[in-house]
Amino acid sequence: MISSLIIVFREVIEAGLIVGIVLAATTGVPHRSRAVALGVIAGVLGACLVAGFAGELASLFQGSGQEFFNAAILALAVGMLTWHNVWMASHGREMARELKAAGHQVQSGERTLTALSIVVGVAVLREGSEVVLFLYGIAAQGGSSAGGMVAGGALGLLAGALVSGLMYFGLLTIPAGRLFQVTSGLITLLAAGMAAQAVIFLQNGGWLEYFTGTVWDTSWLVREDSIPGRLLHTLVGYSEAPNGAQLIAYGATILVILVLMRLVPQGQKGAKGAPA
Amino acid sequence: MKRLLLALVMMATPVLAEEPIVLHLKNHRFTPSTIKVKANKPAMITLFNDDAEADEFDSSSLKIERVVPGHNKGNIRLRALAPGKYPFMGEFHAATAQGLVIAE
Q1: Cβ atoms B70, B62 nearer than 8 A
Q2: Distance from A237 to chain B by nearest Cα, in Å?
Q3: Contact at 8 Å (CB) between A173 and A24?
Q4: How far apart are CA A207 and CA A226, in angstroms?
Q5: Contact criterion met (CB < 8 Å) for A55 and B79
Q6: CA distance A56 to A213
Q7: Considering only CB atoms, which chain A residues are within 8 Å of B69?
Q8: A77 and which of A60, A122, A171, B68 could share a cystine (Cβ 3.0–4.6 Å)?
């Protein structure tokens, strides 16, 4: 039971942290619970599909279908996070003003909900498909231990939800005037970490063979597969031994987001409509 | 016919300096549990999951997460590795599914 609790918790942390950040980034925005819930539901359904067709998926692209799929959905999430931040650069001040005003309704924030809903969906899908496969394996085995393992899994899910809540309520202690600046910063780092992870999948699929040498190794300090390592990996893209291509993707993503945020006109204009 | 099939398979497979390393997972244990590869050269592992349940070949030091469903196989690409030891595990059954890649 403990082992399944730990495995499910480990998988759920990543999605949980991302959901927490998205909730904070949409504080006061009407219908945001619906958007986040839709993202979670779509993510869970997608996870079941991916788990159910894991063999077929893997056999695509000369056996590198899983890597291709992961790189693609990560790239999608990076795009959506970038879009959100650029949109926030032009509307963040307006949103902060609305949040501070009576009623705490941030009507202007609704435009960014679709992008963040997709990000939540991708996060849940990635981690969820592993949870589904793991729990399905246990359930299929049956026997007396299966009940305990499933209970452990449920507790792991709950613990993951708790992390999500801690992240959210922790961020809410930030004054309204600065909240969206902080969430934009966090989202920039999330996007950079995801871009670096996408590069790993491209390398594992055999599509990217430049700059694969390890640049530094901090595994003596924080191991990536420890709980702190996983938290850091999700939040800021920590990698215990990053290679050149990973670092380039990380730096380039931050640079592109910051430049786009600068370029976008401040105020009402610019970044109209929903993401493509 | 067999030769034709073999030729087709060879055409569809990326060129590798050497044959893929065959790795089996049975009763949630890897055989062989220690894999030696040449340092600074890419390699390929073909993992046959002989169990009914899925597992994930997971190694943070190898930077690989690869789900292999039950009674299925998966090709796992190892990047050119600096000399050293790289542990891996079957994440869903980590109590028993442990292994080590040694690059030398």
Answers
A1: no
A2: 13
A3: no
A4: 29
A5: no
A6: 32
A7: 54-55, 58, 133
A8: A122
Q: Which amino acid type is present at position A226?
A: S
Q: Residues of chain A whose C-beta is under 8 A from some C-beta in B?
A: 3, 7, 51, 54-55, 58, 62-64, 66, 129-130, 133-134, 136-138, 140-141, 200, 203-206, 212-214, 219, 223-225, 229, 239-241, 243
Q: What is the pLDDT of residues A143-187, one digit of tens each?
A: 657 778 888 888 988 988 898 899 999 999 999 889 999 999 999
What number is the ipTM of this complex?
Answer: 0.84
Average pLDDT over residues B85-94: 93
Q: What six digits make up the tokens of B22?
A: 């065959």
Which pTM does this prediction carry?
Answer: 0.88
pLDDT digits (tens, 9 = 90+) for A224-233: 988 899 999 9
Residue B13 CB neighbour total at 10 angstroms:
13
The closest of A250, A146, A138 to A198, measured between CA atoms, is: A250
CA separation for the pair A192, A87 (Å, rounded): 17
Instruction: Let me know the angle formed at the C-alpha of B10 by B6 and B13, rounded to the nearest 5 degrees.
Output: 140
What is chain B's percent helix, strand, coil content, to nearest 5? Answer: 15, 50, 40
